[in-house]
Amino acid sequence: MEINIGISNEHRKAIAEGLAKVLADSYMVYLKTHNYHWNVTGELFHSLHEQFEEQYTELAEAIDVIAERIRSIGYRAPGSFMEFSEITSIEEDTDDPNALEMVKRLALDNEAILRTARSVLPACEEAGDEATIDLITQRLDVHSKTAWMLRSHLE
């Protein structure tokens, strides 16, 4: 069935491609945060274990919202690790970082999501896609706060 939601096919495609990158970045940070939750050690264990759990739980919900927005504008949401790894800006760990390095990496990763999310806004604004603008605005708020909280551990 043809989609006629008041956003051109060209704009919907650009928005969906941008959201797919936000989805991929969010999923990769979700995986990394969950890994760190399991593997953090040291004197900050308890506080970081809980903080990481809050963060990956929030990311799990956000991933669903982002994917559903892609679907609602008529595109397939990427859903495999291979697809995510091809379009993400987030680097995977190849080592076993200590607690403060975990915090630093997650702070940088949340800032990366912020940059990716901001890159979608021009297409949304041009298309008048207020629903996606709202979603992106919410993600900007969450990731700005998360990055700040993580950076605060490093001061």
What's the SSE blueprint?
Elements: H1 9-39, H2 45-72, H3 81-87, H4 99-127, H5 130-153
Helix pairs in contact: 1-2, 1-3, 1-4, 2-5, 4-5
Overall description:
Residues 17-155 form the Ferritin/DPS domain. It comes from Rhodohalobacter mucosus. By secondary structure, this protein is mainly alpha-helical. It has one domain (9-89, 97-153): Up-down Bundle (Ferritin), CATH 1.20.1260.10. The protein is built from 5 helices and no strands. The chain has helices at residues 9-39, 45-72, 81-87, 99-127, 130-153. Helix 1 packs antiparallel against helix 4 and helix 2 (45-72) runs antiparallel to helix 5. It starts with 8 loop residues before the first helix and ends with a helix.
Tally the structural domains.
1
The percent range for strand residues is under 5%
Distance between the termini: 54 Å
Radius of gyration: 16 Å
Number of helices: 5
Q: Could you give a short account of the major beta sheet?
A: none
How many E-type strands? 0
The CATH class name reads Mainly Alpha
Along the chain, the helix and strand elements come as HHHHH
**Class by helix and strand content?**
mainly alpha
Mean pLDDT: 97
What's the CATH architecture? Answer: Up-down Bundle
The gross shape turns out to be elongated
Under CATH, the homologous superfamily reads Ferritin, core subunit, four-helix bundle
**Low-pLDDT sequence parts:** none
Helix content: over 70%
CATH topology: Ferritin
